[in-house]
Structure formats: structure tokens, C-alpha cells
Specification:
four-stranded mixed sheet, mainly beta, 88 residues, 43% strand
Length: 88
């Protein structure tokens, strides 16, 4: 769902529901990582075509960066799953 290419995360901001697994794929020709600023998740070094997935179990905003290239940043916004019909 998130592509790593040309020293960027695309999309830079992604909104998902609680329980969603997000997968980052390194399409760049150099290694990158995916590391949460709050230590909620952290990938190993991802070589070209390597993937990393994390399942978001709680709602919130999760900022992350590449620990090898800290100027590379992104955000995953996790919304609570709705349990029923919307209120009128």
C-alpha cells in the first residue's frame, strides 16, 4: 500500500481502519527502513523489492521515517472501525 521510491514514501499520508495491515515495498535501488517515531513498529533494512507489513490494532496517528534517511517521513492515520450504522 505504501511505495518507497526516489527517497519518498508514497502516499506520504495514508488513512486506514483499525485492523488493517499496511505493507511498504521498497522500489528504490538503495536500502531503506520503516521506523515509527513512537517505536510502535520498525522494519529491518529493506533491500530493493523487500516488503514490510504491520497491522494497526489501535486508532491514532502514526508518524514514521527511514532510519537511514531521516528526511524521509510519512504518516499512517488509523480510524476506529465503525460497529453499526451512522448516527442520524
Amino acid at each position: 500500500m505504501v511505495k518507497i521510491d526516489n527517497f519518498t514514501f508514497a502516499p506520504q499520508r495514508l488513512t486506514v481502519k483499525v485492523g488493517t495491515s499496511v505493507t511498504w515495498t521498497n522500489e528504490d535501488d538503495i536500502p531503506h527502513t520503516v521506523a515509527s517515531t513512537s517505536n510502535a513498529f520498525r522494519s529491518k533494512v529493506l533491500d530493493t523489492d523487500d516488503k514490510y507489513s504491520f497491522t494497526f490494532a489501535t486508532a491514532g496517528s502514526f508518524e514514521y521515517f527511514c532510519s537511514l534517511h531521516p528526511h524521509m517521513t510519512g504518516t499512517i492515520v488509523v480510524e476506529a472501525a465503525t460497529g453499526g450504522p451512522a448516527a442520524p
